[in-house]
Structures are given as structure tokens and as C-alpha cells.
Amino acid sequence: MLSMYFNIHGGSQQQEAVAAESEPEPLSIFRTQENDPACQSEKHFGQYYTLPSAHVRTVFPHGLPMRYKQQVKTFNEACMMVRPPALEVISSLKKTDNSKPAVRYLFYGLKGSGKTMTLCHTIHFCYTQGWLVLHVPDAHLWVKNCKELLPSSFNSSRYDQPLQATEWLRNFRITNEPFLSKIKTKQRYVWTKRESTEEGSTLGELVDQGITRVKTSSDVVGAVMKELRLQSGQPESDFRLAVAVDGVNALWGRSTIRKMNNTAVDPEELTLVYNLRKLMKNDWTGGAIITTLAQTGAVYTSKYSYLPKELLGEKGFDSMDPFIPVSVPNYSEKEFESCYLYYMDRHWLQYPHSRTEDGKKELIFLSNRNPSMLERICGFH
Length: 381
Fold this sequence. Notes:
Blueprint: H1 2-8, H2 13-21, E1 48-50, H3 53-59, H4 66-75, E2 79-81, H5 84-94, E3 103-108, H6 115-128, E4 132-136, E5 150-151, E6 159-160, H7 162-175, H8 177-180, E7 189-190, E8 196-197, H9 203-212, H10 217-231, E9 241-245, H11 271-280, E10 287-292, H12 308-320, E11 324-327, H13 333-345, H14 357-367, H15 371-378
Parallel strand pairs: 3-10, 3-11, 4-9, 9-10
Antiparallel strand pairs: 1-2, 5-6, 7-8
Helix pairs in contact: 5-6, 7-9, 7-10, 9-10, 10-11, 14-15
């Protein structure tokens, strides 16, 4: 056990900065001091690393699961477990060839197995490596009941969702602040008779247009996605683009949004979905497309479905093909043990029985080592 401790504890300036926020126990084998995702390896499997609070605010102004955000508040720290699926994709991203079409990665697994957190771990890597992160944290919210649905002023056969678009633009601006003044638009965009964004304007000006003029926000999101798609991987561009979509199967599923005549809106009729689907094509270079499947976004499909073919459907599968499927399983024995020790350390397990060997076996039996189920059960113990 001690040999493991000496293998995992290293030092760097970033680690020292994080240590000031959260000093782990000197012999906590379930933690690692390696808080840079780019430096994590197989020897860190099953261990928790700490995200600096500044990164949590910047990288994830949206996108973290609600229960995880509550946990961060309760534990007074943001920790993620280093798991094989995330490191598998991170390892591939390190070898990204900017001249080749973007590779599509697809995390899939049982409900609650940790797909969203694995995606977040991968996004954190991209951010620390200076990638531009285009994150859609919950695609199914774009096809779910919409508070405000307006006919598109640009295309009469499509519908705008100004509130969702404005919120997304605000969060995009927070995460990608350094790029907003560097990237210039390649074409002119006309919004109304009086308003336009000229060619050569900064990406920041384009984003601000959608935030200040809410009615144009859906089309602005489309323009931002178009500019990034066209400029990524070009010789004059000095950014790599990470497109991260949680619940990507919602883009080809069925929507619960209704038109005035009470018929269902097809996802492709939504301006936001229409433009995001374009980004899912790997006809652009200089980045990667990292996605997850979600049962939540799979309206009208079996709750036990989790395989790509089942959740994407034929149309979605054909659109995403070829992709690299990455399975996110329930916790291994080592990962469960690490999670159990972490919850003990954070005093999340209150009942004395849950701290015994028999109590631990009960938790394994009740949760089947499913991360989400374990977290919920431990909240009552």
C-alpha cells in the first residue's frame, strides 16, 4: 500500500496551487496529487484528483450533473476519479493530427455508469491543453419542452429557441474568453435591416450580438459553429477545437416540443439542432468530437437500452459513423473501494454499520457498483 503512495505523489506548480485549496490526508491512497489530466496514467486509475475551483467556474459554468454540483458544495471540493475510459480518449487526443478529419468518440454505458463525468474529465484535459471547447452539456434539453419557440427569421421552415441559445452563448463566452478577441469572422452576417456583423469582426462581437439581441441568438449560435468549423485546422488558425456533446442521441430522436397545430417538432426543424448536427459531421479538421449517449435524451425508447445502435437509431448511427465507441462500465472493485474510502473521508457515510465490512458488502449488493446508484444510496447511510 505504501509503495502505491510513493508512486503516485509527485509535485508541480499547479499541484502546489491546488494544495493551498485542499490539502489531502498524507496517506490517502484514494487520492492523487497529479491534478493535470495530461500527466495522468494507468497508475492513477481509481484515484481522485482535485479540480482547482477557478477551473470549475470557467470550464463548467454549465455541464456538471446537478447531483455532482451538490456534492461539490457539500464536500467543499471538486474531485473526479481517474477512470480508464477517459484516459483512453485523452491518450488518443494527444495524438490528434490537425490535418485529418475530426475523430468522433462516443462514450456509452448503463444508466449512471459515469458517462457525463468521463466526458467532463476529457473536457478538462482539452481546456488545460489550450483547446477551444464547444460544450453542449445536455442536448436533450434542446428537444424537450421549450418555454419560448419562435419561427426562424432566417428560414421559415425552422424554429428558434432564443432562451436556450442565449444561455449557451453566455456559457461559451465564459469558457473561451481568451479566443474571443483572437478569432475573426470570415464573412458578413446580416441579422435585421439595421443590424449586421461585418467580416473581420471578432468572435466576441459575434457572441455579444446573440446575447444582447436575444431574437437573433439561435442564428448567432449557428454562425459561431460555422466559423469554428470552417477555421479549425486551417494554416492561419492557432486553435484546436473540442466539440463535446452530452446526450448526442437526442439530435436524432423525437422531440416533445409541439407546434401551434399540436404536431411534434422534428429535431431537424430546430435551428440549434440543425447547426449542431452539421458539427457532428467530420468534414472539418483540427480537433475532435467527443460525445456521450444518454437514456435521458432517448424519448420513447426502452429505459434498458444503452448500446449505440439502440439509442442513436438508424439515422443517428449512419450520421455518426465512423466513430470510436468507448464503453463506460460500472466501478471495478478497485474503483468501488476508492469511492467508498473517499465517501468515508468526506463523512458522507454517517451510519456506523456502513463503515463495517458487512455494511460495505451491502452497498456493493444494493448498488451493483453503479456510480450513480452508489452515490444516492450513500446519501442515506
